[in-house]
Design brief:
With 160 residues, this protein is α/β, with parallel strands linked by helices. Helix content is 27%, strand content 19%. The chain has a five-stranded mixed sheet, sandwiched between helices. Helix 4 runs parallel beside helix 5. The termini are far apart.
Length: 160
Amino acid sequence: MSASKDHLLAADPSLQVDRIPLYEVYMRMAEELAKRSTCARLQVGTVVTDQRLENVLAIGYNGNARGLPNKCDSTVPGNCGCIHSEMNALVKAPGSVRDKVVFVSASPCVMCAKLIINSGVTHVFYRKAYRDPSGVEVLQQGGVVPVLYDRWASAWRNGA
């Protein structure tokens, strides 16, 4: 395993840290992006970084396509017509960059998991589990490491 992959797996939740970790910074960015979502059922945000966590490559949130009304096409769950945040982010991320890392406010669905696998992503950090765990299972089958990342969800908030 390369040194850059080792540091991703070294996010030991038992470690004490005196400042906010980059993992948490990017996760909070994803949560803030989710607030821009126009989806009526579930607002989701995504940040794509490089393997070293030094550069944000792309951002996304779920909603309708550019130029279309900022609302869901339908109220039927699972058929609202919104483009998922992961799709919106990955379509903007440079394809030439391999070993990308994704931070998303909710774990991906199956189709987003497949897109993530094909986009050269090595790790997906997510804050909350989506109602269907199949996307996480697909990530694992495709060799992408899914990480439920909620260790510092309430730390460093409001000046803490």
